[in-house]
Amino acid sequence: MQCSASLGETSPTVFIPQRLPSAPMPSFKRGIGLNFLFIAGVCAVWSWFNLSPPKPERFLQFKVKTPPEGWSFQEIPLGDEVIATLATTDLLNGQYLSAEGDRVSVFLANWSGENGIGLEVLGHRPDYCWLGTGWNFIEINPLPKISIILEGQSIPQTVRLFKSQLDGAVELAAWSALLDGRLCDVDNYTLTDLPKDAGVPEIQRAIDLRRTMGFLLNSVLTRRKPTGRKQFIRVSTHVGSDINESVKILTEFLQNSISGT
Fold first, then answer.
1. By the 8 A CB rule, do 194 and 173 touch?
2. Pick from 238, 219, 237: nearest CA to 227
3. Does the predicted model carry a pTM greater than 0.85?
4. Dist CA 175 CA 105 (whole Å)
5. Considering only 5-9, 32-36, 89-93, 241-245, which range has the smallest mean pLDDT?
6. pLDDT at residue 3 is higher than 50
7. What's phi and psi for 224, nearest 5 deg?
8. Structurally, what CATH architecture does the domain formed by 63-259 represent?
9. Mean pLDDT in the chain?
10. Domain boundaries, the chain
11. In the prediction, which pLDDT does 177 show?
12. Burial status of residue 54 (CB atoms within 10 A of its CB: 0-12, 13-18, 19 or more)
């Protein structure tokens, strides 16, 4: 059955209320508000890092002493491209050899605060760079602990175990970094935190992300400028049948060869 309106009938008028458009905020007012927020944020950041930041009890600085008795040093020059990537020429790279046949490879880099280099230069570490040059992680639980005492302060080292894809050699590496004379410890991840069955680029990105967030958090909590003075040291040695022997070699070398002022 169909219904239709007969001629002469008028359809009822239905009134639908319309929402009036809100008056747009004048562009100059919006601009003033955004500028105020930006300036306030910049002032807050500047104040946090510059107005009475806490000073360390001791200003640490890694320095390599004269080779210990029975050890000799062989410098290994770095190429121009590597030096350009590291953004500093204040470098030490080589290996110490003992009369007993032990070998400790050492890398020490310094960045002054005057050049304004950010925290990204501290990202060139074995767990990132070595993965891109033919080394793989070896998972070991628990990881060995290595620390040294500098000026009465304990400096724990990040420790990782690597295996060469080329010849199967196993290397134990330990490293740490200083920002404005204090420990900058951000490598608190474990291998279980990294993506499984992933390629090197994916693992490097995961490490880089965790390290970047760690750097930023460390800088904010300790009120140290990311552009402050920086140092990074890495030592490594071959691992034979007993990893504890390699741990001992690195620990004794660091304690006897590195000073803190």
1. no
2. 219
3. no
4. 12
5. 5-9
6. no
7. -115, 135
8. 3-Layer(aba) Sandwich (3.40)
9. 76
10. 24-53, 63-259
11. 87
12. exposed
Place of tokens 């002493």: 65
Q: What is the pLDDT of residues 57-103, one digit of tens each?
A: 567 888 887 777 788 999 999 999 988 888 888 899 999 999 889 99
Residue 208 tokens, joined? 């880089």
H/E segment holding residue 239: none
Contact 102, 237 (CB under 8 A): yes
Nearest in space to 121 (alpha carbons), one of 36, 19, 39, 228: 228
Residues with Cβ within 8 Å of residue 158, at least 6 apart in sequence: 125, 127, 174, 175, 176, 185, 187
C-alpha–C-alpha distance, residues 245 and 22, integer Å: 76
Residue 24's Cβ-count burial label (10 Å; 0-12, 13-18, 19+) is: exposed
Contact 260, 181 (CB under 8 A): no
Residue 255, token pair as written in the block: 């304690």
Q: What are residue 176's DSSP bridge partners?
A: 233
Q: Which residue has the tokens 């590597």?
A: 82
What is the Cα–Cα distance from 63 to 233, expressed in whole angstroms?
Answer: 10
Distance of CA 250 to the CA centre of its chain: 22
Tokens of 196: 């499984």
Token pair, residue 157, equals 């080292």
